[in-house]
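[Discussion] Sanity-checking designs against the backbone

I'm trying to build intuition for which residues belong where. Below is a structure token string of 380 positions. I'd appreciate it if someone posts a full sequence so I can compare it with mine line by line.
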């Protein structure tokens, strides 16, 4: 089977969208006890949903890009193609998709969280992968959309962040990138500093010494103000990530109540970040224009021992390190009680709180056979 293209992936999501039923206790049918496996490939067959095209359906989809960006124009092209195919195939019973561009992942998340609380969110959203935990209980398991063969035909590496708590809830369409710390290992070793490797942290995260306090001590050791060397460089802070590193969270699991205001973890994250500046271990990101570009150059010049960046920059960092004959170490941001690293990249999530009336035909994922029965009580 040919590799599933981005076009087909999007069309499969859209064409099956309007058959979903909300995970709402008042809408359960007592005669249906369907339960889904917690791994994608436990079985090669599972129950799927199939559009019936009994009436026209209009779908709004939110995308975290601008309409004129490369991603925005590509999505617009895909949606135009999909709508044209629907018109040609189903006439007045077509599915029509309208894209609303939200500019950034942050802007989309802010708007989406408010919309969920108000109950007027769109069913389809393209979210940044770091936002996935916020919507775990609201998302449809996408195994009801793709067959086993279609899933196997996709890029398997991307499935590493498509699953959340046993649910395949995020169909990626834009490559992943993680927020990371790139460290000048050569500079550290010259100062007698030993840091764990990423493999060490993954092997035993509970006992890892890569903590806030250890990170701060290393930054202090690397700092040499007289020679213009700072232990750490960053363009912006990550108070949300630092809150999760303390075991906190923004919202409860259903995104229906605020959680971060119940303790001082958010404040502690801000205070820690501020201390890096006030104690002279990093330059205030707001103190100069073009700071983000400057710190990259300074890191290449070994004027910063560690830099907070994205994994999408690793190729360039590696090339520059080879030119300077230095060795790098790539690490997550340190933990307070647990590790948490924001990830980039986008994918499609379908929400389960927008039911469509009636029962829909379902087909087996392997042979395409159909049967009449109610949809699952809840994908779980």
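Best answer:
Here's mine. Compare freely.
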């Amino acid at each position: 089977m040919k590799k599933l293209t981005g076009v087909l992936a999007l069309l499969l999501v859209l064409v099956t969208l309007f058959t979903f039923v909300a995970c709402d206790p008042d809408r359960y049918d007592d005669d249906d006890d369907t339960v889904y496996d917690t791994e994608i490939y436990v079985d090669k067959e599972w129950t799927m949903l199939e559009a019936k095209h009994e009436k026209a359906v209009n779908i709004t989809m939110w995308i975290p890009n601008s309409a004129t960006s490369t991603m925005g124009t590509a999505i617009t092209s895909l949606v135009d193609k999909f709508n044209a195919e629907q018109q040609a195939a189903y006439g007045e019973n077509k599915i029509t998709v309208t894209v609303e561009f939200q500019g950034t992942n942050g802007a989309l998340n802010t708007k989406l969280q408010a919309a969920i609380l108000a109950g007027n969110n769109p069913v389809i959203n393209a979210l940044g992968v770091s936002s996935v935990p916020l919507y775990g209980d609201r998302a449809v398991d996408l195994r009801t959309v793709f067959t086993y063969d279609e899933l196997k035909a996709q890029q398997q590496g991307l499935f590493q962040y498509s699953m959340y708590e046993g649910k395949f809830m995020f169909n990626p369409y834009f490559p992943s990138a993680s927020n990371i710390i790139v460290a000048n290992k050569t500079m550290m070793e010259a100062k007698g500093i030993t840091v764990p490797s990423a493999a060490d942290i993954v092997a035993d995260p509970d006992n890892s010494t890569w903590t806030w306090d250890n990170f701060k001590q290393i930054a202090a050791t690397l700092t040499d103000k007289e020679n213009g060397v700072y232990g750490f460089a960053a363009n912006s802070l990550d108070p949300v990530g630092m809150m999760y590193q303390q075991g906190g969270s923004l919202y409860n699991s259903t995104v229906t109540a605020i959680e971060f205001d119940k303790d001082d973890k958010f404040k502690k994250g801000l205070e820690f970040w501020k201390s890096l500046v006030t104690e002279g271990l990093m330059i205030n990101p707001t103190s100069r224009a073009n700071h983000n570009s400057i710190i990259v150059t300074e890191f290449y010049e070994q004027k910063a021992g560690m830099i907070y960046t994205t994994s999408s920059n690793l190729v360039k960092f590696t090339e520059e390190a080879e030119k300077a004959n230095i060795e790098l170490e790539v690490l997550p941001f340190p933990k307070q009680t647990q590790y948490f690293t924001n990830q980039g990249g986008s994918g499609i999530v379908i929400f389960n709180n927008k039911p469509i009336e009636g029962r829909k035909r379902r087909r087996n994922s392997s042979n395409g056979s159909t049967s009449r029965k109610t949809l699952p009580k809840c994908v779980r």
